[in-house]
Amino acid sequence: MTSWDATVDLVVVGSGGGGLTAALAAVDAGAKVLVVEKQGVVGGSTAMSGGVVWIPNNPLMRAAGVPDSYEDAMAHFDAVVGDVGPASSEQRRHTFLTAGLEMLTFLQRRGVRFAYCRGYSDYYSDAKGGIDEGRAVEPKPFNGNRLGEWGRKLQPGLAKSLGMAVMTNEARSLSHYNRSLRAFAITTRVVMRTAAARAARRDLLTNGAALIAQLLGAALERGAEVWVDSPLEDLIADGGRVVGVRISHDGSTKQIEARRGVLLSAGGFAHNPAMRGEYGGDQPNNAKWSMANPGDTGEAMQAAMQLGAKTDFMDEAWWIPSPRTGRFGQSTLDQARQRPRAIYVDAAGRRFVNESNSYMEVGKAMYERNKTSRAVPCWLIFDDRYRKRYAHVRSHPGWFPKEMLESGKLKRAATLEALAAECNIDPAGLADTIETFNRHAAEGRDPEYGRGESAYNKALGDPSRKVKNPCIEPLDQAPYYAVEVLPGDIGTCGGLLTNEHAQVLDQDDKPIPGLYATGNTTATVMGRHYLGPGASIANSMVFGYVAARHATGDEAGA
Ligand SMILES: Cc1cc2nc3c(=O)[nH]c(=O)nc-3n(C[C@H](O)[C@H](O)[C@H](O)COP(=O)(O)OP(=O)(O)OC[C@H]3O[C@@H](n4cnc5c(N)ncnc54)[C@H](O)[C@@H]3O)c2cc1C
Prior knowledge:
Blueprint: E1 6-13, H1 17-28, E2 33-36, H2 44-48, E3 53-54, H3 59-63, H4 70-81, H5 90-109, E4 114-116, E5 136-139, E6 142-143, H6 158-162, H7 168-174, H8 181-199, E7 204-205, H9 207-221, E8 225-227, E9 232-238, E10 241-249, E11 252-264, H10 273-279, H11 299-306, E12 311-312, E13 317-323, E14 342-345, H12 359-370, E15 378-383, H13 384-389, H14 402-406, E16 410-413, H15 416-423, H16 427-441, H17 455-459, E17 480-492, E18 495-496, E19 503-505, E20 511-517, H18 535-551
Parallel strand pairs: 1-2, 1-11, 2-8, 11-20
Antiparallel strand pairs: 3-5, 4-5, 6-7, 9-10, 10-11, 12-18, 13-17, 14-15, 15-17, 16-17, 19-20
Helix pairs in contact: 1-9, 1-18, 4-5, 5-18, 7-8, 15-16
Bound molecules: flavin-adenine dinucleotide (FAD).
Flavin-adenine dinucleotide binds next to helix 1, helix 2, helix 11, strand 17 and helix 18.
């Protein structure tokens, strides 16, 4: 007989978007819930993120007059994700679409406030069922002071590092403040919102931090318990059924009984070098390149694997090409690939991808090209007009932090040939690439990769009416610049195989009784694609909600 230190209905491991959504749904259904979080802060990568959630056919887009349907969303899954096996089975897609809607409505009724991200296009907007205006929502700004003591226990968010209360759908306008009146007006709004919050001493949260703060507040208010600094050590099973967890808490080991189940919503293994080495295949890859939260180390997934859980997509991650710009971090030149006067090339000096496509798509293209020509790292090349024209998160038009050049991370040369020599790029290849690219770019075209044609490409490009194509212009003004680009990631997205109820499956595809999983702990319903802004948080929150409903005896999205 196991001796228990406490008994609850549902133990939730991990306090990210999936975990807290599940906790809220379960307490709402009358269950006793304990969330155990390994770190001293709540929210995981979700709190650090843009907090955008991709929910097709949602009521906020309907209210904004943007039509969508279940059928179109299903067609979009078929067209982009294709047949990738059970993680994205038809039943799981059906659940994602139907329970997603239900979850959003449920959260709104419990006071979690969202705004529609109008214009934040689907990443494959030109594929069947894609929507130009987008299917994403994000949390409205939230006053963190309302959380009291818990406000100090939030994983710091994206906007904190920028010092601005900027919503995610506004962020692209901030760095284009000098390129269109609309972008300038949005920037002014953000500056005023930030100043007003400071004057009123409000800790105004946006993005993922606002999402986590709202979910946490609602879950605590309804009686969920949340323990920080309490890592899962192991799952406790009895006769094949998961009946509880062993955790470390307050300096000792505790055994918690979970009468209705255990939900693993503990993220992936982005920061576990051994697991990445084991499962990454021949893709050169480094846990240090990941932007995921430091708790993303995979022990919960390993505990389930010990019990015989099946996995899929273990070599996959949410890739994000990351220019190595030194201590100014990954954000200084992140946007460059989506703007005019900048391209990516491999060591042969050749382009290999539509640079304006989604980060996941470009990251995958880097790995694919690397099989035949070195593209990990690849190089971002841009000209001096780019430097003079564009702002970045931490630089203004015409000004780059001196350290970027002094550290040698940003290369500069008077000619393309000299730049190629500095970067060990084939000079003839680079010259030929730029000559061809420039010829077409002068007409606003990219016959090779179609850059700037899709609504998504346009949405992230230069909003100025003065450019022929928001994503391309010739690179023709010396000096020229180059920065190495690595395939970073915002988390891994392979893991435990789960069914349409979020139950973890064993090697015979049978549910392991009492064990649920969601988010980056699982093989995602998105397969090997990122369908739109918010695709990963949506996967986590929706299946967290589904798990809670199933464990408490209800079926979501039926
Ligand atoms: C800068 C940035 C921006 C992003 N923007 C977006 C966006 O706008 N939209 C989007 O969809 N995605 C975005 N992503 C990706 C997204 O944040 C993650 O994929 C997603 O939040 C993962 O959610 P999760 O619930 O699976 O895990 P997480 O939110 O990471 O939560 C997992 C939690 O489990 C905890 N944990 C781990 N192991 C244990 C253990 N043994 N015991 C107890 N607790 C444990 C972790 O500490 C963590 O707090 C972004 C990521 C980053 C880094």
